[in-house]
Each structure stands twice: as C-alpha cells, then as structure tokens.
Amino acid sequence: MDTRDSNVLLPRESAKLIANNSKDVKIHPEGVKKIANHMYECAKKNTYNLQSWRTEHELNPQSQDESALDWVFVADTLNFSFWSDDESQKYRIKFNGKEYTGYWSWCAALNRALKNR
C-alpha cells in the first residue's frame, strides 16, 4: 500500500517541474550525465560512501543523526543560491578562520548560524 501524499512530488518530478517553469534555474543535461557517471563509478569502486563524505570536507556534518539529515536537506535545497555566473564575483564568507566561496560558503554560513543559535 502506498501511503505517500498524492500532492508530494518525488525528486525527478520536482526537478522536471522546476526546469519547465523556472526562468532562473537551469538543468544542464550534460552536467547531470557527468555527475551520474561519476557517482556510478564511485559506487562500483566503493570509493564514495558515508564515511568518505563526512571526511571529504570539514564543513560536512560529522554526526549520523537527525540534525545531519536536516543539515543536508537545507544545504541541498538552497545550494544553487550561492553559485555565480561571474567567477570574479563569488560570494565569500569567513568561518573558523578560513574563507570559503561558492557552495562551501553556503555550508560555512549554515554552520556558523547553527553554531551561533
């Protein structure tokens, strides 16, 4: 029995809705294919897993609990907001004595907000 709410879109349907209706968000099929192939190769070789994700970058959550799930949800929902078309105009933030740009600036801002709550 399927207990999902019929009004909830799954990721593929959500992406299609956004891509078809958004003026500012674009999905580049070649980029999707590239990352899908990369992740497939990582899965085959077992070179990318939960442990490697946690240790890949100091800003990734280190716990395996509900707060980590919440962090991933928020980070992945808003991460496109910090990409720049102009490489010389990247969003920058300092956190724990280090400067971050792009996606990592968003992660640093999120972590700083959580640290200061």
From TrEMBL:
InterPro entries with a match to the protein in the record: Q_salvage
Keywords, alphabetical: Hydrolase
Transmembrane stretches, start-end: none
MF-aspect GO terms: hydrolase activity
One Pfam family hit: Q_salvage
Catalytic reaction list: queuosine 5'-phosphate + H2O = queuine + D-ribose 5-phosphate
EC number(s) reported in the record: 3.2.2.-
One example of a Gene Ontology biological process annotation: tRNA modification
Family: Belongs to the QNG1 protein family.
Annotated PANTHER family: QUEUOSINE 5'-PHOSPHATE N-GLYCOSYLASE_HYDROLASE, QUEUOSINE 5'-PHOSPHATE N-GLYCOSYLASE_HYDROLASE-RELATED
Role noted for this protein: Catalyzes the hydrolysis of queuosine 5'-phosphate, releasing the nucleobase queuine (q). Is required for salvage of queuine from exogenous queuosine (Q) that is imported and then converted to queuosine 5'-phosphate intracellularly.
Name of the protein in question: Queuosine 5'-phosphate N-glycosylase/hydrolase
